[in-house]
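Handout, page 2. Input:
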Amino acid sequence: MSSSQSKGMFKSSLAPLMEQFVQEKRAVGYRYETGAATLIRLDRFLANEAPPDTGWSRSVIRRWLAKRPLESTSSQRTRFTVARQFAEFLCRLGHPVYVPDRALAARGHSSFSPRIFTQPEIRRLLQEADRLTPLQHAHRSGTWSCQRCSACCAAAAFGSVRS
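Output:
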């Protein structure tokens, strides 16, 4: 969504400030496509759910941030991030608004599990690296030494460097 497409898309009482926020994000180099789309959804929510005189209240924003059925953690986190950044923007402009606490952000469990090599695995890795032969291609002349160096660096991280 380009800046011309987002202009005039906001309808709530905060529409001018939302447009200014998107312009600021883009002026500093962000494409801000997903954020702008999320902000438009927040704007629709505020236009439909918030009393016109309050606009941005703690109770309304908490309803916006609540987990939705079948919503992924990352989608909820995106909504949280956009709402929090916009609230901080409003505060910078002198509007005393509720800024959602970071503790409210959705937390997903990480599927990352580090792979820690055993000493015998490191030894086998280095033995295999020793068996590598340099490539015959001129444009890859440093590949063999680079591979051996990588293997040594990995081993050094585990305290078992061989010379």
